[in-house]
Design brief:
384 residues, Arc Repressor Mutant, subunit A, 3 domains, 14 strands, 42% helix
Length: 384
């Protein structure tokens, strides 16, 4: 809120109204403020917010707006427009608060119209009409009581700093536009690569080349990740998310021996989704639905609480036998979880769970000493 300043609502020369909205609440970052049910006006120079009970308005120069984002509303929340702001330049007029820890503000649209207002705001930001206005002072600012006249030399320095700040804001805006274009281009590249992959299947290409090309496709990620905005309810969102995770990671899980730690699954799927990152809660809920949806992967929880995603129908007896086979030949020195992890190429946590599971199935015995926990083949069961 330190970027807002008190001003009157009259328009300066060259300033024109672009859009307006009613019943708007102001947030200082994620924190609610007492500024609610106000009228929001967008001009080609600034944003104006005023409540009917107030004689003056709160103004926000558009030159401070770096990036805009829209937050969809929920069952009990209104849609919001997030404005990421640059630091206020020296000599910025006084506002409702002196300093703020948040570098962004949120505008809550109680009666809708958030998307249309964002489009109008984006158009005004691209036009940058305020750069042609007189730079002597921000338009129609209300001077705080007791303000004194400032020396012309200091004003000149402040103008130079403000010009540099505006140039930096312009460069940042162009950088975000380039990032958006890069994201659109990445989606086109994924679609093109999949088209080429389908053509490769129809022609005579070696199996090694096909495998290598598929690995390239996997590194490109998911071109159209599932999002909450695409589905009306959280249940439908988690159903589609479960299918996306199973489809994207079935082959990597099989290559890892049929089992993969849930933490690794979370990292891999977020890497594939790019900027559309998942929360841990959404990831767990989606994996919990895999078994019910009869997907090729499902969530399994060991007795210790460690969770993994494994191939559906994985024979646990085979896993225990493979662990017991790895213990053969280690009757004297035994194996630690680290030894099994290096030999089988699995994460350390998963190797420990495999050894504990083999112990529960009487295929291994343990020895716990000052040197740590080591496991040995169960020679007692083999002799019985």
């Amino acid at each position: 809120m330190d970027r807002w300043f008190w001003c009157d609502s009259s328009l300066s020369p060259g300033e024109a109204v672009a859009a307006s909205a009613k019943s708007i609440r102001l947030y200082d970052g994620d924190k609610r403020t007492g500024y609610e049910d106000g009228h929001l006006t967008l001009t080609n120079h600034r944003l104006l917010w005023r409540h009917e009970s107030q004689s003056s308005s709160l103004g926000l120069p558009l030159g401070l707006v770096v990036l805009t984002e829209e937050e969809a509303g929920g069952f009990t929340s209104s849609p919001k427009l997030v404005l990421h702001l640059a630091s206020p330049p020296p000599g910025h007029p006084a506002g409702p608060v002196a300093t703020s820890q948040a570098s962004y503000v949120r505008l809550s649209f109680k009666h809708g119209g958030c998307s249309a207002f964002q489009q109008a705001l984006q158009t005004a930001l691209e036009a940058r009409a305020w750069e042609n206005a007189a730079p002597a002072q921000l338009p129609n600012s209300v001077k705080p009581p007791g303000s004194k006249k400032i020396h012309a030399g200091i004003i000149g320095i402040e103008r130079a700093i403000q010009a540099k700040q505006q140039e930096a804001n312009k460069n940042i805006s162009h950088a975000f536009e380039d990032l958006k274009n890069l994201m659109d281009l990445a989606k086109d590249m994924v679609s093109l690569s999949r088209s080429i992959s389908n053509k490769i299947k129809e022609t005579s290409v070696s199996a090694d080349d096909t495998t290598q090309f598929r690995s390239y496709l996997l590194s490109l990620g998911i071109d159209d990740p599932v999002t909450r905005e695409q589905h009306g309810s959280a249940t439908q969102y988690h159903h589609h998310l479960a299918r996306e995770v199973a489809g994207a990671l079935e082959e990597p899980v099989r290559e890892a021996g049929g089992v993969m730690l849930l933490s690794e699954v979370y990292c891999r799927i977020n890497r594939a989704r790019g900027l559309e990152l998942l929360s841990p809660e959404d990831m767990v809920q989606a994996c919990n639905l895999m078994r019910r949806l009869d997907l090729p992967l499902n969530l399994h929880t060991f007795e210790s609480g460690v969770q993994v995603v494994q191939v559906t129908g994985l024979d646990q007896d085979k896993v225990v036998k493979a662990t017991a086979k790895a213990l053969d030949g280690h009757e004297v020195d035994g194996m630690s979880a680290g030894d099994l992890a290096r030999e089988c190429g699995v994460p350390l946590l998963l190797a420990r769970e495999r050894l504990l599971q083999a112990e529960r199935c009487a295929q291994a015995v343990r020895d716990e000493s000052s040197e740590g926990l080591r496991f040995f083949p169960n020679l007692f069961s083999s002799r019985s």
